[in-house]
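Ticket #4471: structure export looks truncated?
Reporter: QA, pipeline team
Priority: medium

Steps to reproduce: submit the single chain below to the structure queue and open the exported record.
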Amino acid sequence: MPAMDCGVLDYGDMNWLAVFCAGLPYWLVGAIWYSVLFSKAWRAAN
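Actual output as written to the record:
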């Protein structure tokens, strides 16, 4: 069985602009989901 490498992950080569550009629409969809579409039901449940 090979040994597992439990070292620190290196995010130096990650394209942070792509991560941001993918995360922003995800966040906006959530904001629209809870504010426009289901705001009344969500407030009633709280």
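Status: closed, not a bug. The export was complete when the record was re-opened. Leaving a note from the reviewer for reference: Helices lie at 16-37, 39-45.
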